[in-house]
Each structure stands twice: as structure tokens, then as C-alpha cells.
């Protein structure tokens, strides 16, 4: 779940409130029902994949249709039946968009049709139409749902239909019974569900008491029933084992189970339908909370041609209006489906505008200005970065500059400084378009100096340090970098003068070291480090250029200690710069000391483990030192508390003796420097 889903949950709560107050239409005054239906129409247009909205809408609509003082303007009567074109169109839309998890809508439709079908005038033709509807609903929806407890009642309602079959003779009775028998066999052999055993027991009893032609024999379907019953027991045991999992993991496990057992189904289409049913069932519970369920639904539905992919992305952004991920997927899908035509560009522009407006809605942006660790600041920043990306891809440099202009207007209008990495991203796209755009990039970065460094030296230095690292690493020429640094110094001097004015109350006068806090002085020096690094490294270490930087520092901060400038220069030549932070404290060993061969101690020394000491690369054999020599080495003073025990002559004599011992031990080669 994303951190920016609060607004979406508020929408969900409002829908739930409307759903709750319309549970029983009979409690709602007729005069208010039409107003509520209009509200439902508006919500269903915006949130058409919300099952509970459709359920309450149809219940209220049908009640109003049957009990209102006047028939709906879309309604007519025919042979005692109420026919409403708008209702039929709504049923068709709901069933199509919610499939295969749409049994609740089918159930409302069936009850509505059963109440309005005239079996006297329609006869067997009307009955046959309802029978076909029952079978269709079973195959396309209810049979896919092992979670439901409606199967037995549904089948009993189906059997009750046949009381309208006007039996004229014994042959007609057999035809009726065979019709029932054929469909019950289909119901118990096409799927597995909780009520399967209950349905089978009823069927066995009914079959023994109703005559038939022998065309459909129960013993022929018994093995299939046993297989389905076994499959349900297996599935039930599996599903019960998921009780402690969260919703996401439970759905994933159910999908995996279906995939593992897809060979058990009569055909691949059944497996695919069951797979989609599980996705949609989970989707309905998380559609306001999870970007992932939308991506899952779109991927598994639009690929099969069931849904229009762009329609689903459009609706996804209405359910989750602050989802950057879904917005990007929508933008890319638009380009794939429609190409880079103007309608695509206009849609993407509108989408990003809405995304920004929805993200900042009801938020105090001034309070998060410059706070790049704030989640809202970070979210708005990444939105603008991605807007640069999408506009550049669709419209080239023109689109990039339009998007960057929108960003600059935003931080000016909203008085909210977002992450300045957006300036660097913009420069990268400029250089990708044309490597000769370095002067443009310097102007872009200079704009940031004025916006991020105004009245705040710390922000100015952070911005400069980040962007200066970028321009030096990106291969900008010295002239460009120097020009950029001049702009920085101008902004810095203005800030320092303002700071001194605040500290001393004077509007003019020399800026001295005592007027600049220590932390701020260090902050300023950090900014000079990339510039020194460039001049002494990338620019081949020209002495005069480095010296000129020293002069600049002295002008900027008069009275600064020379050692501070020296430390700034020397630090960028330290090997520690190349080490991970946690390893900086480790000693940097010379290249020659790469291996540490073990030195085996004499047996008469009471030591538990061999001691490793650095030795040159060329010595690779194990050497056993005499005990006396090792005793001398152990007693030598340590460097950190060194108090000389020997003068120079004694040390030279000791070294000669040591090398003599090594020579006697057949060491072929060693090096020695006087």
C-alpha cells in the first residue's frame, strides 16, 4: 500500500456510506429515490468497477420502477411486463464490466425477470428463455466461485421453474423430467463447490421418484461427481491452510493452486475463467488501496481482449488519482495504442496536471518547502521528474522545456522547493538531445542557484555541491564550470553580506572570519572541494588554477586559517576517498604487502596459534624462526609507546644479524635499503 492512498480511502468510505443507507429501498421516501438514483448514476460513471454500487443501484431502481407513482420515462408495459430500456442497458453494462465476478448482478436480474415473465402468454418459449439464462449464469459466473454458498438454492430455484411446464401427456412429462435431469447432471459435473454433496443427495432422491426415458442415467455421472467432490475437498483443505496469510499472499497462493491444477479441468477456458475470477474477487476488495491489483486486472483482462486496456487505466486513475505508477503505465499504453499523435500528447498533459493537483490537494506545501526527506515533497519531486521523461519521449526537447517551465512555475507559485535533482535530470535530457547544450544547462543550473540559495547559505551550498559534482563528472568544459562557479560566488557573497548584516546590524563593512559561524564556514569549503578536485584532476592539475581557487577562498572568507585550505586540497588526494565508508578506518597497505604467509613457531614456545605478519610478495614459503630470534622480536618495543632501546649503530648491527640468520636458512633473495 502506498503512503498517498488516504484520499482514495475517503472516496471508498463515502461510497460505503451511500451503499449502507440504501440497503432497504422501502425505507427511502419515493421523493428522495430519484435524487439518489441520479447520485448513483454519477458514481457509476466514475467508479464502474465497484460491485456494491451496482447492487444497490439495481435494487433501488427496480423498487422505484415497481412502486413509484409513475413509471420511469424509459419504461413501457407489454402483456403485463414492465420493460425498461435504461435498466436493460445498465444490466448489460454491469454484467460485461464485472465479469466473471458478477453473480450478484445476475441474481438481481433473474429475480427481476422471474417476477415479470408471463408464463401464461409466453408458454414454453418464455420458460425456455429463462432456462437458458440460468445455465448461462451458471457457466459464466456461479460455477467459477468455490467460495459461494448459493449453489444449492440457485439449483432449487431452477428446478422450481418447471412448475410452469404445462404437462399435457406422459411423453411431455418424460421430456420435462429429462430436461431437468440433463441440467442437474451438468450442474454436478461441471464444477466443484461447497454444496455439491447436498445437491447430489437431492438429485439421487429426485431421480428415483421421477420417470425418465433412460437417456440420462445417474450412474453414468456418478464417477464424475465423485471426482468433483474429491476436488472440492482438496481445494477446501488447501484454502483453510491459508487462514493466517494476508490478502495478497492468499490471492497469490490461490492463483498458484489454479495453475498447478489446470490440467484437471475439462478445457483451458475453464481454468482461465477461474483464474480471472480470483483476481477480480480480490480486486473488488482492494480497488481503492492497491496499484498492484489494478495492474494485475489490466494485465490478465486486456490481453485476452475482454476489456479495453486504455479504459481500465483511465478508470484506475479515478479510483487512485494520485498513483504515479498507474499514470506512467497509462501514458505508455496510450503511446503504444495511438502513437505520438496530438490526442495522446494532450491526454498525457492533462493526466500529469490532474496527478499534481490531486497529490497537492489539501496539503500545506509551504511547510515542506526544501524538506527533501518529507514524503509529500519526495512524491511531488518524482512526479515532476517523470513528467520531464514522458514529455521528452513524446515531444522531444520542446516537451522537455515545457515541462521544466511548469515545474519552475509550480515552485514559484506554491512557494515550495522540491528536490533539486529535477534540475540535474533536466540537464541530462538536454545533453541527450544535443551534447552542445552545455551552455543551456549552465543557465538552467544557475536558475536553481537563485531559487534554492536565496536567503539560505546552507541550501545554496547543498544545491551547488550536488550540481557541481554533476557538471564536473558530465564532462563540462572548464569555461562552463568556471562561469557556473562565478554565479555561485555572487549568490554566496550576497548571502554572506546579508548574514553579517543580521549579526552585526551593519549594511556594509569587511566580512571577517569571526562573523561567519564555524559550521557555515565548513559548509562553504565543501562546495569548493569539487572545483579543486576538477582543477587538480580533470584539468590535469594546473598549479595556477588551483592557486587561484585559494585566492578566491581567502576573498570569500578573509582570515581563514591556511590549514583549513590545505586540508580541503589534501583530502581529495586521499586513498580513503575510494573506500566504502565503513572501511575508512582501515589502514591502507602498500601494494607490495598483498600476502601474509604464516610463520611457524618453534614447538618449545607456548603459543596457541600461528601469528601472521606482513611479508613481501616474493617470499611465499613457510619459514621457521629460531626460538631465540622470536624472543627478541617479541620483546621489541611497540611503535605507539616507543622509547628507543638501541642507538643507530646497535640497530644496524641487529639488522645485520637478523639477515645473517635468514641467509643461513637458505632464503634465496631479499631486499635491503640503508
Automatic annotation (TrEMBL):
Residues 36-557 form the Suppressor of forked domain. Keywords: Nucleus, Repeat. GO terms for cellular component: nucleus. Its main location: nucleus. It comes from the Eukaryota. It is found in: Nucleus. It holds the Pfam family Suf. InterPro entries: Suf (IPR008847), TPR-like_helical_dom_sf (IPR011990). One of its GO terms (biological process) is RNA processing. This is Suppressor of forked domain-containing protein. It comes from Hanseniaspora valbyensis NRRL Y-1626. The lineage of its organism: Eukaryota, Fungi, Dikarya, Ascomycota, Saccharomycotina.
Amino acid at each position: 500500500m502506498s503512503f498517498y492512498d488516504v484520499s482514495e480511502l475517503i472516496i471508498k468510505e463515502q461510497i460505503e456510506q451511500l451503499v449502507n443507507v440504501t440497503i432497504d429501498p422501502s425505507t427511502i421516501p419515493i421523493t428522495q429515490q430519484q435524487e439518489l438514483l441520479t447520485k448513483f448514476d454519477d458514481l457509476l460513471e466514475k467508479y464502474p468497477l465497484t460491485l456494491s454500487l451496482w447492487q444497490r443501484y439495481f435494487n433501488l431502481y427496480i423498487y422505484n420502477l415497481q412502486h413509484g407513482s409513475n413509471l420511469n420515462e424509459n419504461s413501457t408495459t407489454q402483456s403485463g411486463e414492465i420493460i425498461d430500456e435504461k435498466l436493460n442497458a445498465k444490466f448489460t453494462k454491469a454484467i460485461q464490466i464485472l465479469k466473471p465476478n458478477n453473480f450478484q448482478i445476475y441474481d438481481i436480474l433473474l429475480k427481476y425477470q422471474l417476477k415479470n415473465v408471463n408464463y401464461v402468454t409466453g408458454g414454453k418459449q418464455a420458460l425456455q428463455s429463462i432456462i437458458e439464462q440460468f445455465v448461462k449464469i451458471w457457466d459464466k459466473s456461479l460455477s467459477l466461485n468455490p467460495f459461494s454458498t448459493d449453489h444449492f438454492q440457485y439449483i432449487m430455484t431452477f428446478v422450481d421453474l418447471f412448475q410452469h411446464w404445462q404437462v399435457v401427456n406422459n411423453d411431455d412429462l418424460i421430456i420435462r423430467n429429462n430436461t431437468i435431469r440433463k441440467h442437474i447432471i451438468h450442474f454436478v459435473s461441471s464444477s466443484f463447490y461447497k454444496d455439491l454433496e447436498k445437491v447430489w443427495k437431492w438429485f439421487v432422491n429426485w431421480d428415483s421418484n421421477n420417470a425418465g426415458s433412460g437417456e440420462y442415467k445417474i450412474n453414468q455421472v456418478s464417477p464424475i461427481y465423485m471426482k468433483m467432490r474429491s476436488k472440492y475437498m482438496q481445494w477446501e483443505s488447501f484454502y483453510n491452510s491459508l487462514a493466517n496469510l494476508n490478502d495478497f499472499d492468499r490471492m497469490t497462493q490461490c492463483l498458484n493452486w489454479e495453475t498447478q491444477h489446470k490440467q484437471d479441468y475439462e478445457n483451458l477456458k475453464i481454468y482461465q475463467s477461474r483464474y480471472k475470477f480470483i483476481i477480480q474477487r480480490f480486486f473488488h476488495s482492494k480497488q481503492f488501496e492497491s496499484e498492484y491489483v489494478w495492474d494485475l486486472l489490466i494485465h490478465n483482462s486486456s490481453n485476452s481482449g475482454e476489456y479495453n486496456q486504455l479504459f481500465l487505466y483511465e478508470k484506475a486513475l479515478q479510483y487512485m488519482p494520485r498513483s504515479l505508477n498507474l499514470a506512467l503505465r497509462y501514458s505508455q499504453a496510450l503511446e503504444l495504442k495511438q502513437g505520438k499523435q496530438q490526442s495522446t500528447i494532450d491526454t498525457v498533459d492533462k493526466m500529469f496536471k490532474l496527478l499534481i493537483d490531486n497529490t497537492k490537494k489539501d496539503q500545506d506545501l509551504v511547510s515542506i518547502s526544501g524538506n527533501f526527506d518529507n514524503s509529500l515533497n519526495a512524491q511531488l519531486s518524482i512526479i515532476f521528474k517523470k513528467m520531464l521523461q514522458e514529455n521528452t519521449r513524446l515531444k522531444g526537447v520542446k516537451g522537455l522545456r515545457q515541462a521544466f517551465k511548469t515545474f519552475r512555475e509550480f515552485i514559484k507559485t506554491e512557494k515550495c522547493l522540491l528536490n533539486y535533482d529535477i534540475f540535474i535530470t533536466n540537464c541530462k535530457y538536454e545533453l541527450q538531445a544535443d551534447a552542445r547544450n552545455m551552455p543551456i544547462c549552465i543557465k538552467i543550473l544557475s536558475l536553481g542557484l537563485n531559487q534554492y540559495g536565496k536567503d539560505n547559505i546552507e541550501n545554496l551550498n547543498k544545491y551547488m555541491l550536488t550540481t557541481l559534482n554533476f557538471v564536473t563528472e558530465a564532462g563540462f568544459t572548464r569555461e562552463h564550470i568556471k562561469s557556473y562557479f562565478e554565479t555561485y560566488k555572487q549568490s554566496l557573497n550576497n548571502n554572506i553580506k546579508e548574514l553579517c548584516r543580521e549579526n552585526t546590524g551593519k549594511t556594509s563593512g569587511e566580512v571577517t572570519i569571526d562573523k561567519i559561524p564555524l559550521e557555515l564556514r565548513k559548509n562553504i569549503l565543501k562546495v569548493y572541494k569539487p572545483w579543486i578536485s576538477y582543477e587538480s584532476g580533470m584539468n590535469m592539475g594546473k598549479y595556477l588554477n588551483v592557486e587561484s581557487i585559494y585566492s578566491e577562498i581567502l576573498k570569500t572568507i578573509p582570515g581563514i586559517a591556511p590549514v583549513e585550505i590545505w586540508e580541503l586540497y589534501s583530502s581529495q588526494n586521499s586513498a580513503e576517498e575510494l573506500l566504502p565508508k565503513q572501511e575508512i578506518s582501515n589502514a591502507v597497505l602498500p601494494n607490495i604487502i598483498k600476502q601474509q604467509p604464516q610463520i611457524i613457531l618453534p614447538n618449545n614456545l607456548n603459543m596457541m596459534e600461528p601469528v601472521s605478519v606482513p611479508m613481501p610478495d616474493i617470499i611465499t614459503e613457510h619459514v621457521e624462526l629460531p626460538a631465540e630470534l622470536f624472543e627478541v622480536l617479541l620483546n621489541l618495543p611497540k611503535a605507539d609507546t616507543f622509547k628507543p632501546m638501541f642507538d643507530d649503530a646497535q640497530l644496524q648491527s641487529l639488522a645485520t644479524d637478523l639477515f645473517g640468520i635468514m641467509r643461513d636458512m637458505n632464503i634465496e633473495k631479499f631486499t635491503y635499503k640503508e
